[in-house]
């Protein structure tokens, strides 16, 4: 059985420790200045019941390395090492069902001789990886979105393509506004007033059988789920997704809108700013993508096996002797 949250193993500053013992000092630099980067990765119970499968682990850790370069974070583990740490963490925690993994790399402490203040150089780096059980929370019946009055932070101010902790205050403001207004989620526009993305997901629109999603110049995080969906639509429906400017008015007149992200996976949007999307129910392309994606993440589709990394739940070399009973 998986341990209680305080007893869970975390990988913290080079070793596996209990969550309750993974402390950080009040001087932790990333806490003051938002100078950390992170990833969100899912592992899924395999369709044949034998193992757990990390989804696009290599791509997530490659993106984490890129985010670190932007913030001058000295990540001491290779992509392969990070994958191994993650597999070990899942095994130690006995996370046999669907799991969410949160790797975090952040500025820790001023190095000797570095003066107090906001900076990227002269500050040490720390790595923490958490894993927790997380099932499918996306709503098959669809969600209601509001278009945020908060604009997406432009790349010229804070790069959206890196998952920088401090930047998520922008997303939190948008979500807060949307939920206070009774919506489930926010869709943010970029500085031009074109569609950027949702708080932690990319946006797809369908018009008369054509599919579009905002391009990499729209201040989006180019999601790994987004890339998977572009592939799936090509394979399953012979559709080429247009990566282009998507106007706000296109959202309000679309036949289908759906969001993609590691956390929410594929979620239909059935209402935007009080107007139904299409007939107000999930559309056929959205439903198709949801189904193919669910098979892919569980290793049930041979075309997409290269996206799955087995955890090795029964690996005999895992030290489970110190795991809670
Ligand atoms: C701002 C933002 N956009 C998009 C996404 C979707 O990215 P991915 O599909 O790689 O999870 C996320 C989630 O990581 C996000 O935080």
In words, what does this structure look like?
By secondary structure, this protein is α+β, with helices and mostly antiparallel strands. The protein folds into 2 domains: 5-135, 2-Layer Sandwich (D-amino Acid Aminotransferase, Chain A, domain 1), CATH 3.30.470; 143-305, D-amino Acid Aminotransferase, subunit A, domain 2 (D-amino Acid Aminotransferase, Chain A, domain 2, Alpha-Beta Barrel), CATH 3.20.10.10. It has helices at residues 29-33, 57-70, 79-92, 168-180, 224-237, 248-253, 284-297, and strands spanning 9-12, 15-18, 36-38, 41-45, 52-55, 99-110, 123-133, 143-147, 185-189, 195-198, 202-207, 210-213, 242-243, 256-261, 265-272, 275-276, 308-310. The strands form 2 sheets. Strands 8, 9, 10, 11, 12, 13, 14, 15 and 16 form a 9-stranded mixed β-sheet that branches. Strands 1, 2, 3, 4, 5, 6, 7 and 17 form an 8-stranded antiparallel β-sheet that branches. Strand 4 (41-45) and strand 5 form a beta hairpin. The chain is globular, with a radius of gyration of 20 Å. The termini are close together. 42% of the residues are buried. The model has no long low-confidence stretch (mean pLDDT 95). Bound molecules: pyridoxal-5'-phosphate. Pyridoxal-5'-phosphate is lined by residues 40, 171, 197, 200-202, 221, 223-226, 260-262. Residues 40, 171, 197, 200-202, 221, 223-226, 260-262 line the site of pyridoxal-5'-phosphate.
Tags for this model:
325 residues; alpha+beta; D-amino Acid Aminotransferase, Chain A, domain 1; D-amino Acid Aminotransferase, Chain A, domain 2; 2 domains; nine-stranded mixed sheet; eight-stranded antiparallel sheet; 25% helix; binds pyridoxal-5'-phosphate
């Amino acid at each position: 059985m998986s341990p209680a949250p305080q007893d869970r193993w975390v990988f913290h500053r080079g070793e596996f420790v209990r969550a309750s013992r993974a402390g950080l000092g009040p001087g932790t630099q990333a806490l003051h200045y938002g100078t950390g980067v992170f990833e969100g990765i899912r592992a899924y119970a395999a369709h044949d019941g034998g193992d757990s499968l990390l989804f696009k682990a290599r791509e997530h850790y490659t993106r984490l390395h890129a985010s670190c370069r932007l913030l001058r974070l000295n990540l001491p583990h290779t992509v392969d090492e990070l994958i191994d740490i993650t597999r070990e963490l899942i095994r130690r925690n006995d996370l046999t069902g669907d799991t969410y993994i949160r790797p975090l790399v952040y500025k820790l402490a001023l190095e000797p001789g570095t003066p107090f203040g906001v900076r990227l150089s002269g500050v040490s780096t720390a790595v923490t990886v958490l894993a927790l059980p997380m099932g499918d929370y996306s709503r098959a019946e669809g969600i209601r979105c509001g278009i945020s009055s908060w604009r997406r932070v432009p790349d010229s101010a804070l790069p959206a393509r890196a998952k920088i902790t401090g930047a998520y205050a922008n997303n939190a403001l948008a979500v807060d506004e949307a939920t206070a207004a009774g919506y489930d989620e926010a869709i943010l526009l970029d500085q031009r007033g074109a569609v950027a993305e949702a708080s932690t997901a990319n946006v797809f629109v369908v018009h008369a059988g054509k599919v579009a999603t905002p391009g990499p110049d729209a201040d989006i995080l180019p999601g790994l789920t987004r890339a998977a969906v572009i592939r799936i639509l090509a394979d399953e429906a012979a559709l080429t997704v247009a990566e282009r400017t998507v106007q706000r008015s296109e959202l309000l007149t679309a036949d289908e809108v759906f969001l993609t992200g590691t956390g929410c996976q594929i979620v239909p949007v059935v209402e935007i700013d009080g107007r139904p999307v299409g007939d107000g129910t999930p559309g056929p392309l959205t439903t198709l993508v949801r189904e193919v994606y669910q098979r892919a993440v569980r290793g049930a589709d041979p075309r997409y096996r290269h996206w799955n990394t087995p955890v090795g739940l029964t690996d005999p070399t895992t030290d489970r002797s110190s795991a809670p009973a």
